[in-house]
Amino acid sequence: MRAQRLPRARSVGSVGFVTACEEADGVTFGGVERKRVRDAGLVEDAFDQSFVALGAGVGDGIHRMMMLHFVLLLALAAPPGRLVDVGGGRQMHIVCVGNGFPTVVFEAGGGEGWYTWAVVQDAISRNYRACAYDRAGFAFSDERPGPRTVAGIVDDLHTLLHNAGEKAPYVMVGHSMGGEFVRGYAAAYPAEVAGMVLVDSSHEDDGTSTLAPSIEAIREQRRLALEEMRRSGKWKTMGFPDGLPRDVETLVTPLTATRKWWEARFAEGRMSDYHPSVPVERRQLDIPLVVLTSTDASRPNSVPESDWKEWQQRHAREQDELAMRSPRSTHVLVSAGHYIQLEKPQLVIDAIRQVACSVIETSQR
Q1: Separation CA 152–CA 158 (nearest Å)
Q2: C-beta separation of 148 from 267 below 8 A
Q3: What's the CA gap between 292 and 354, in Å, rounded?
Q4: In this structure, which long-range contacts are made by residues 63-68, counting pairs with CB atoms below 8 Å and at least 24 apart in sequence?
Q5: How far apart are CA 295 and CA 36, in angstroms?
Q6: How far apart are CA 181 and CA 183, in angstroms?
Q7: By the 8 A CB rule, do 173 and 196 touch?
Q8: 82-87 and 129-133: which strand pairing?
Q9: In three state form, how does the secondary structure of 291-303 look?
Q10: Which of 122, 182, 209, 311 could form a disulfide with 172 if both were Cys (CB 3.0 to 4.6 A apart)?
Q11: Quick one: which of 137, 197, 139, 189 has its CA closest to 166?
């Protein structure tokens, strides 16, 4: 059964794709228009804007004062969620709010944490249990020893949810690289995943795209920048996409100016099992699935226009393939940049509610 391909997000509300459960919640699978965010770049989850200097061209004295300011802010920062023991002397940070069935679990894109879901999570928590977390090394979570791998990320999340007392089945929601992580979770623990929403997700075959040389050049720039930060001990703050709540950005910014944050970000671009993270024979799903695909991502400066056009065509085919992995899927083309959850959060909220309602209806049969 071919996945239903809906019009662009501005008109999806007219399709009438609403279940009885959604009608009770007042869901119309549409969305209010939000201001267009500055597109952070589809390829590397905003890595291009991550190396933001703490005052380029200023003296070491000013730099030390700024670093002291961030250290003080970091000392005062309190985790908004819980720190949960995951074994090996490590704790991981998880933010769970709301009540209701099923539990929705959010997975951030590469090099990011729970905060990218702040807007959507708040809305979802009004009807369901909603959990977002920081992967190892990010924000309030401790580092994980050894090389970073997708398998390790999946194992961490499984342990975290279990030790936090969060009950399956889950609706897994993944953005960008996080889409591969939630698919990896579903492959490892299929009985625990009852539904899925992919928000402009990366694809297992991205590593063979024409953009591979450009991506590798970006990674080399990042490696050199990381080496300089290691040498100097001056860890830079990270830039954020537009649309993030100001209080959340204020809380998280000091956490980015740390060694563990940057080491984790670099490691996520070098995972040995990232492509392909899920073998072909284990990619098929039989759960409610919504695939949200950005159509308006802007070309990163480092990518030639000819390569970008070819990549866009490939990305469209790969997104179609993701939607074909379940016989119960919907594919929505969204006129927005890569961070759909911040630019047009209502579309993501409605997609999650649609999947959650399908899970509820199935459980009642």
Answers
A1: 10
A2: yes
A3: 13
A4: 63/234, 67/234, 67/257
A5: 13
A6: 5
A7: yes
A8: unpaired
A9: EEEECCCCCCCCC
A10: 182
A11: 189
Q: Tens place of pLDDT for every residue, the chain, 365 residues?
A: 444 444 333 334 323 334 446 544 444 343 322 222 223 333 333 333 332 322 333 344 444 444 444 443 444 468 999 999 999 999 999 999 999 999 999 999 999 999 999 999 999 999 999 999 999 999 999 999 999 999 999 999 999 999 999 999 999 999 999 999 999 999 999 999 999 999 999 998 776 555 666 667 777 777 788 888 889 998 989 889 899 999 999 999 999 999 999 999 989 988 878 766 677 777 889 999 999 999 988 777 777 787 788 888 888 999 999 999 999 999 999 999 999 999 999 999 999 999 999 999 999 98
Which DSSP category does 29 fall into?
Answer: S
The answer for residues whose C-beta is within 8 angstroms of residue 212's C-beta and 6 or more apart is none
C-alpha 132/C-alpha 115 separation (Å) is 8
Q: Is 4-363 a CATH 3.30.70.270 domain?
A: no
Strands (E), the chain: 4-6, 82-87, 90-97, 103-107, 129-133, 170-175, 193-199, 289-294, 329-334
For 313-332, letters b (16+ CB in 10 Å) and e give ebbeebbeebbbbbebbbbb
> How many angstroms separate the CA atoms of 172 and 106, rounded?
6
How many angstroms from the chain centroid is the CA of residue 97? 18
The domain ranges of the chain are 4-363
Residues 6+ apart with CB under 8 A from 356: 21, 102, 104, 127, 128, 171, 195
